[in-house]
């Protein structure tokens, strides 16, 4: 373990070095270059890392980032976790291992099963798998006893088939990782603007005058965004960052594709860096809006009067409500200085083409929907939606999480979507809403005997309240994990547990008609193909669509859908998507020549497609929470060496933390206040809803973070996040605002 100084610049030669180091540790050199050569190139492999869009012109030097290379190394690792591996390690033994160890045992190669009373997983043939799952699902008292989770790496084709199967089976129980991620963005944007997706395209960044980045760490989680930010700056844009932590990637970017960047010379990014207190973004944005409105009394051009008049609803009520709030109170809640606020107001006053970006720092709070709605208010004041260089930019996480939703992976599908399924496929889909992630965990926990199926992902480590979620999985009659890699969810099976290994992004998919491509949708609503180039490492690996089709045909039969013909040629799946999902008409035609399909987006064109046909100003209250003298507000965040629950390595290079993940980033004044000895471990604990939770053995790292705020890593501290602590309206677990106390014995 080593704690050093946080970095003040991201990417550069060190990133290239670390990326290649991880790649060569996992894979042979020629294989590495074969995959990287097509990564994010047209017709090649879409990076299984984040959902950041590809630029129109792809760099021949390489269109990927350090963490994209790590994602590839993770998936395409030469090593296999095969039947011999499972014969050697019991699940009890594997539970004692770290997430890092679990992930580094290699790719899953063979279907495995474990039954109650057994200590080890053992191999099982696919036919038995499909028959057993089919007959179990058919025997359930009601289809709502099945729960079908999805993680955002699943392709459009797999997602479409999966939701179709589940709805023919008879339930909307389709929780997904989005419930823990950008659900709050979807709810806020649908209500205010009419579509639950962002409005900007990549090109808008190059024309923008001001870019606001709230609660996002792109240097680690969306590194290719830094190239877009640099280009925006080169074109004259200003950047304001709102984040409790000084994230290296937002300070300065060493573009490895330029000579200076490769030499480690960084281009500064943030013009103003506001280290707001955790969950005080509403206060900050309201303070800015109030000041803009005040200034507009002398200079009406500061706000876009025509836009407000013509395109929005609720302005007067909004302005009146802001007038009731005391500016001093707002500013003091943010923890920022008045002159920082004035500087922000100056930047916003003088510019009209504004993009607001955000990620988990806004979406994982009890008032997350309010956070986003308040940002929409600010953009509306400036008329900054629906014109070039301006708009909303929720930066998505998983590489196809947005596409999965478009394909119908949702526990609350719209009536319109279900009506189309009904008329296309001639069946009556279930109309009752299903359970989301929190609802699913509660249901599995409280009512034993459910069947839980997981299309990718790692629910146990991703969800809050780890011990509660563990019990929920163990209470199931059957657990089914379609996965590429071993993870902790596999180690807590139901009465019978399956691990079903599948082909990944980098693999070749071979079906009767030949090699198949898949499609994905990026964070900005562009759909394109992806195709791997690695031969399947084992004869047992099947694609996700293939596995779904087989389970579907054994469960719901082939009358409504001929599942077998669909997987002979995935064009057939896309033909069904074309008939069922708006914007995908002539889908196969449109993909020809590696073309990109741009999905319809009303707000992008200044058309607000909500129920009132106008953009809505909303009234959002300040978050109400009280911190006692000995309370701390904890956010659980990602290190530089992880992808969600997949741990690439033990370092968080940009934050200067090496070889350890069980840390608490803490302000120096708070360390003195609590009289903590840096040489000794601490325990974090809380009590919520009558349950005591604690995580022991954490190491204090003195850090530049606002007082009373602390940061820990996810998933290590998920045990402290109460399942019932969730965002209003979106039900997203509030894993960025968890009240805790600290002790040292
Ligand atoms: N390499 C890599 N890439 C990834 C992922 C990964 O794990 N690794 N995960 C993918 C996924 S699924 C997602 S959703 C995204 C996540 O991308 P991010 O949202 O960037 O991920 P987090 O680490 O959760 O970072 C949250 C950021 O918000 C800040 N923050 C926390 N609370 C607040 C607050 O109250 N207000 C403000 N203003 N800021 C706050 C934190 O300091 C931190 O910088 O990345 C995707 N890409
Ligand atoms: N405390 C806290 N909790 C959080 C968050 C947080 O910030 N703080 N973030 C939340 C967010 S934003 C998200 S998105 C969720 C993530 O939740 P999930 O999406 O459930 O978790 P991942 O870690 O992305 O899933 C990793 C697993 O997916 C499988 N996998 C990888 N690639 C493929 C593939 O191509 N096909 C299939 N079938 N399987 C594959 C591998 O087996 C791997 O172990 O976690 C959430 N949990
Ligand atoms: Mo996410």
From TrEMBL:
Under the heading SUPFAM superfamilies, the entry gives: ADC-like (SSF50692), Formate dehydrogenase/DMSO reductase, domains 1-3 (SSF53706)
Which Pfam families does this UniProt record tie to the protein?
Molybdopterin
The Swiss-Prot or TrEMBL record describes its family as follows: Belongs to the prokaryotic molybdopterin-containing oxidoreductase family.
Sorted alphabetically, which keywords does the UniProt record give? 4Fe-4S, Iron, Iron-sulfur, Metal-binding, Molybdenum, Oxidoreductase
The record's listing under InterPro entries reads: Asp_de-COase-like_dom_sf, MopB_CT_YdeP, Mopterin_OxRdtase, Mopterin_OxRdtse_a_bac, Prok_molybdopt-oxidoreductase, YdeP_MopB
Its domain of life reads: Bacteria
- Cofactor list: [4Fe-4S] cluster; Mo-bis(molybdopterin guanine dinucleotide)
Q: Would the keyword Oxidoreductase turn up in this protein's UniProt record?
A: yes
Name of the featured protein: FdhF/YdeP family oxidoreductase
Q: Which organism is it from?
A: Algoriphagus pacificus
Q: Could you confirm whether the keyword Isomerase appears in this record?
A: no
**Which PANTHER family does the record cross-reference, listed alphabetically?**
PROTEIN YDEP (PTHR43105:SF4), RESPIRATORY NITRATE REDUCTASE (PTHR43105)
Domain called Molybdopterin oxidoreductase: residue spans? 107-480
Lineage, uppermost ranks: Bacteria, Pseudomonadati, Bacteroidota, Cytophagia, Cytophagales
């Amino acid at each position: 373990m080593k704690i050093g100084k946080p970095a003040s610049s991201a990417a550069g030669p060190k990133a290239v070095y670390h990326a290649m180091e991880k790649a060569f540790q996992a894979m042979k050199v020629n294989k590495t270059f074969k995959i990287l050569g097509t990564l994010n190139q047209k017709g090649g492999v879409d990076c299984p890392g984040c959902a950041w869009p590809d630029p129109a012109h792809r760099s021949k030097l390489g269109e990927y980032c350090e963490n994209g290379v790590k994602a590839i190394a993770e998936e395409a690792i030469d090593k296999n976790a095969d039947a011999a591996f499972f014969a050697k390690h019991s699940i009890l033994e594997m539970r004692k291992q770290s997430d890092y160890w679990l992930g580094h045992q290699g790719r899953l190669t063979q279907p495995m099963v474990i039954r109650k009373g057994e200590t080890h997983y053992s191999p099982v043939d696919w036919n038995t798998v499909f028959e057993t799952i089919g007959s179990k699902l058919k025997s359930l008292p009601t289809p709502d006893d099945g729960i079908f989770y999805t993680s955002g790496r699943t392709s459009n084709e797999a997602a479409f088939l999966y939701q179709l199967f589940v709805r023919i089976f008879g339930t909307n129980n389709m929780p997904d990782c989005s419930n823990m991620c950008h659900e709050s963005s979807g709810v806020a944007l649908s209500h205010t603007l009419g579509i639950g997706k962002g409005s900007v395209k990549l090109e808008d960044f190059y024309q923008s005058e001001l870019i606001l980045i709230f609660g996002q760490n792109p240097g680690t989680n969306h590194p290719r965004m830094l190239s877009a930010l640099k280009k925006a700056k080169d074109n004259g844009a200003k950047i304001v960052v709102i984040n409790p932590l000084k994230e290296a990637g937002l300070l300065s970017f060493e573009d490895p594709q330029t000579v200076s960047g490769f030499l480690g010379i960084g281009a500064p990014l943030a013009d103003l860096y506001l280290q707001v207190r955790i969950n005080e973004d509403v206060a900050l944005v309201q303070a800015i809006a109030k000041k803009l409105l005040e200034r507009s009394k002398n200079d009406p051009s500061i706000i876009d009067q025509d836009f407000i008049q013509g395109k929005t609803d609720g302005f007067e009520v909004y302005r009146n409500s802001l007038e009731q709030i005391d500016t001093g109170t707002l500013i003091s809640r943010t923890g920022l200085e008045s002159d920082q606020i004035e500087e922000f107001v100056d930047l916003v006053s003088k510019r009209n083409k504004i993009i607001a970006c955000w990620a988990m720092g806004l979406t994982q709070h009890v008032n997350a929907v309010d956070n986003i709605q308040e940002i929409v208010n600010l953009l509306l004041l400036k008329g900054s939606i629906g014109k070039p260089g301006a708009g909303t930019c929720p930066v998505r996480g998983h590489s196809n999480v947005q596409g999965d939703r478009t394909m119908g992976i949702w526990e609350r599908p719209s009536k319109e979507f279900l009506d189309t399924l009904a008329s296309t496929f001639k069946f009556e889909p279930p109309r009752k809403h299903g359970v989301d992630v929190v609802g699913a965990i509660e249901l599995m926990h409280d009512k034993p005997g459910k069947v839980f199926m997981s299309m990718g992902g790692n629910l146990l480590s991703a969800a809050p309240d780890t011990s509660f979620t563990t019990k929920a999985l163990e209470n199931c009659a059957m657990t089914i994990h379609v996965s590429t890699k071993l993870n902790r969810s596999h180690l807590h099976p139901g009465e019978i547990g399956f691990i079903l290994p599948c082909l990944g992004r980098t693999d070749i998919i071979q079906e009767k008609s030949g090699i198949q491509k898949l499609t994905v949708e990026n964070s900005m609503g562009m759909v394109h193909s992806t195709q791997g180039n690695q031969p399947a490492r084992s004869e047992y690996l099947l694609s996700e669509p293939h596995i779904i089709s087989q389970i579907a045909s054994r469960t719901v039969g082939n009358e409504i859908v001929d599942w077998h013909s669909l997987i002979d040629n995935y064009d057939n799946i896309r033909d069904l998507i074309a008939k069922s999902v708006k914007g995908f008409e002539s889908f196969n035609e449109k993909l020809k020549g590696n073309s990109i399909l741009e999905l319809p987006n009303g707000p992008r064109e200044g058309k607000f497609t909500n129920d009132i046909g106008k953009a809505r100003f909303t009234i959002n209250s300040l978050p109400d929470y009280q911190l006692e003298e000995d309370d701390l507000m904890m956010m659980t965040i990602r290190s530089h060496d992880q992808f969600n629950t997949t741990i690439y390595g033990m370092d968080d290079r940009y934050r200067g933390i090496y070889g350890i993940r069980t840390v608490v980033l803490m302000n120096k004044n708070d360390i003195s206040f609590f009289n903590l000895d840096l040489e000794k471990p601490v325990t974090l604990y809380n009590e919520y809803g009558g349950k005591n939770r604690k995580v022991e053995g954490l190491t204090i790292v003195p850090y530049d973070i606002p007082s009373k705020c602390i940061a820990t890593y996810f998933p290590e501290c998920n045990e402290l996040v109460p399942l019932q602590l969730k965002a209003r309206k979106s039900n997203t677990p509030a894993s960025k605002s968890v009240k805790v106390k600290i002790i040292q014995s």
